[in-house]
Predict the 3D structure of the following.
Amino acid sequence: MEEARRLPSWADRDKLERAAAFNESRGLYLNLLNGVGGGMLSTAIPREARAVYYSKGGADMEDRVAKTSLLGFAVGDLDAFRPGGDVVVQAVKTRLVHAAVRHLLPRSPGWSRTSGGQTIPISQQDMLVTWHSLPTYAMRKMLEWKVPMPSADAAAYLHLWQVTAHLLGIRDEYIPATWDSADAQSRQVLDPVLAPTREGVELTDILLRQLAEQTSPGGVDRPLVNALARYLVGDQVADWDGIPREPFWEKAIATAWPKLVAFREKLLPLPLVPPLAWTIEEAARQYILFYLTKGQGTRIEIPETNRPA
């Protein structure tokens, strides 16, 4: 643990500070992409979906979301790598959880039956696949949305996640050195493994139901939740995740979101933003609030069992 909590010798404090400022200024996009978008991608990664489903956390996804959010928001916090930040603590705790899951999951008949011959879960490759479903995916989407991206900000954001990868136990030689190499590696290790699973569809439904209930008791906003999830990950992944089609909201989001981003980036005047955009933005804020608040009062703990039978 003493070794695991040390920053790598190549960590650049100036870049980490710049990344913290970038996270703060682009928080709406990053929290939405890493929280909701990354969550939808993770359920379309068969090994990850099954590892989550058959582990203890899969039986209580609200608690699982809370514990995952602790690390995610520690990474994005303004004080992340300052003395008052706790990203190092949460990363070490996450490594301990991973170690426990590697020990426990091979004893699960459900996991062993669906593991496709994998004998130990959460391998270096598995962690890299998950890593790309966060920063690489988020950067692609921000560029797709035409979010202005100074090269220094992009480099700092990559460096933040390079250091985080190291802290989570990914070996340095596998961590992409540039965004170009990250894109290439993502196409090699993430894109080919995306696929539907029964476990992933079930987890997706639970996550989206929780998000809908957060914005409206009883889940009456589920169509908007479905459409936003589809917009974030695309139709192919959404189909694999079993996310229903919502023609009205899908069209509304595809029209309004780019204009909302342009307005937020001072690239478009207010009169050109459709009124429906504010409904969509408020929904996005509520989804982010869900991830933020679920982590309050919880702790990352080492599991002692798999998913109850």
About this structure: The chain has a mean pLDDT of 91.
